[in-house]
Design brief:
The chain has about 500 residues and is an alpha/beta fold. The radius of gyration is 24 Å and the shape is globular. About 35% of the residues lie in helices and about 15% in strands. It is built from 20 helices and 17 strands.
Length: about 500
């Protein structure tokens, strides 16, 4: 059997963790590595228009597939890709950023190289990467590559955070050891049993003492692999379930206990009133920021809150570490008392949704009419990506059919995210219908990736709302800087159809 090289070893591990695609922008420090990755028959190499889009495409792919990877060149590529890696960190997504780098002998030879800061020290990039990843490794000897690659990938999968791998140009084809069992990378670390038992006992005591309990679903439910156990707990207790905006679709909206999106004054279906009225709130995977609390106006706190995070549980005067969220929720579901008091109250408060607007063929395409038409397109096989800004508020008003998914980037909040993320998502979930709601200002930031959608014939539907500026910024603080140059958007898309590439 032929010995693998560093590039083929990396390709093997990426394929073994379930990646069928990896996203790339070629550059002279990663070309040999890209050659080696191309030889793996289990993965397809996907070109992107630039490194910012490449990292966001990998981020979107991770949302659909569980993990993603992007490969860029040194400095000029990686610096741009760091933006999307910051998103992956903030949004709890395991994206592997791989960067080519100078030859191992260049530093010792005192060479000044292009695509660098013009210094003889090339360590600056990995030092930057350490701040925005859970693990950052630089391979300096081929024999160390298997251990370092495995470490970085395992860390990303365990923590649901991005990792960084730096591979020098002259080591991409260097021989290394064969890959061992993939279980060394994939096998999870179990909850600490004693801590789990104590946490469940505390949680049961907390919830069973409450007269008006409610469950609040947060965006970390997916990262924790806890959507199913959260549903199991909801069925067991029978109380109302509210959902944070970034967790929309993580709990089925047609479930009879769903009481809406909890987002302060723009909460839906009476969710805000219900959360405020409850005397016990189990916050599962929640993230409270200035965005998600509408400027700290919707922030449950105090003795009525029990917080269940990805790997620890805490309440007033109590904390339990090394407890997986899914294990905790499952433990509660087995013994919790049924209490539907909040559902009875919500029955009195729930707004009447039967007065849906009928089709008006001559209606103006104002925001409400666009939202109504997008709503009609959603099915169990749809995924709706709502761009940062005004599209958030349109998106949370949607009533999702069972199975429909909803994606936002509410923590990082980078305008333009949705276009390349949709590109990656569509490749990661080819059997789903990918729909995007994006404003003109955001679209102009990352429009180049539409050309790759055309190139690969991906049936992504983009709803471009042209408000001639940054609408969300106008609402925050208006000024002439919020106006953008209008484009002929039809002509832009036509330009992307100029032959094959």
């Amino acid at each position: 059997m032929l010995s693998p090289n560093v590039g083929s070893y990396l390709a093997t591990r990426l394929a073994q963790i379930g990646l069928k695609h990896h996203f790339v922008v070629p550059g002279d420090y990663n070309l040999i590595l890209l050659d080696k990755l191309l030889l793996n028959p289990h993965m397809e190499q996907v070109n992107c228009a630039n490194e910012l889009n490449c990292s966001f495409a990998a981020e979107g792919y991770a949302r659909a597939n569980g993990a993603g990877a992007c490969i860029v060149t040194f400095s000029v590529g990686a610096f741009s890709a760091f933006n999307g890696i910051g998103s992956a960190y903030a949004e709890n997504l395991p994206v592997i950023l791989i960067s080519g780098s100078p030859n191992t002998n260049d530093a010792g030879a005192n060479h000044l190289l292009h695509h660098t800061l013009g210094t003889h020290d090339f360590k600056y990039q990995i030092e930057m990467a350490k701040r925005i990843t859970c693990a950052a490794v630089a391979i300096e000897r081929a024999e160390d590559a298997p251990r370092l690659i495995d470490h970085a990938i395992r860390a990303a999968l365990l923590t649901k955070k991005p990792a960084y791998i730096e591979i020098p140009t002259n080591l991409a084809g260097a021989l290394c050891a064969h890959a061992g069992p993939i279980s060394t990378v994939l096998n999870p670390e179990p909850s600490d049993l004693a801590s789990l038992v104590a946490a469940v006992e505390y949680g049961l005591s907390f919830m069973n003492k409450r007269l008006k309990p409610i469950l609040l679903a947060g965006p970390k439910l997916r990262a924790a692999g806890a959507e199913a156990t959260f549903l199991e707990l909801a069925d067991a207790i029978g109380c109302s379930v509210a959902v944070m905006p970034a967790a929309k679709s993580f709990f089925p909206e047609h479930h009879h206990q769903f009481v809406g999106i909890y987002w302060g004054e723009v909460s839906t279906l009476g969710a805000g009133t219900m959360v405020d009225w409850a005397d016990g709130i189990l916050c599962a995977g929640t993230v409270f920021t200035d965005y998600s609390t509408m400027g700290w106006k919707a922030l449950p706190e105090g003795e009525r809150v029990l917080t269940a995070d990805i790997d620890h549980i805490r309440g007033l005067g109590a904390g339990f570490g090394r407890v997986h969220l899914a294990d905790f929720l499952s433990g509660l579901a087995k013994e919790i008392k049924h209490n539907d008091t909040t559902m009875i109250e919500h029955g009195r408060l729930r707004p009447d949704l039967t007065q849906a607007r009928l089709l008006e063929p001559k209606a103006k395409l104002i925001r409400g009419e666009i939202t109504r038409q997008v709503q009609l397109m959603l099915t169990a096989d749809s995924t709706l990506l709502a761009e940062t800004g005004d599209s958030w508020f349109n998106g949370i008003q949607m009533h999702l059919p069972n199975g429909c998914r909803f994606e936002v980037e509410m923590q990082w909040g980078h305008i333009g995210w949705s276009v390349p993320a949709a590109f990656g998502y569509a490749l990661g979930a080819p059997r789903r219908d990918t729909i995007v709601m994006v404003g003109a200002g955001s679209f102009q930031v990352t429009v180049q990736e539409v050309s790759q959608m055309v190139r690969l014939r991906l049936p992504i539907i983009l709803f471009l709302i042209n408000n001639l500026g940054y609408t969300i910024e106008v609402e925050i603080h208006d000024g002439q800087y919020n106006s953008i140059k209008n484009w002929d958007y039809v002509a832009v898309v036509e330009a992307f159809n100029s032959g094959d590439g």
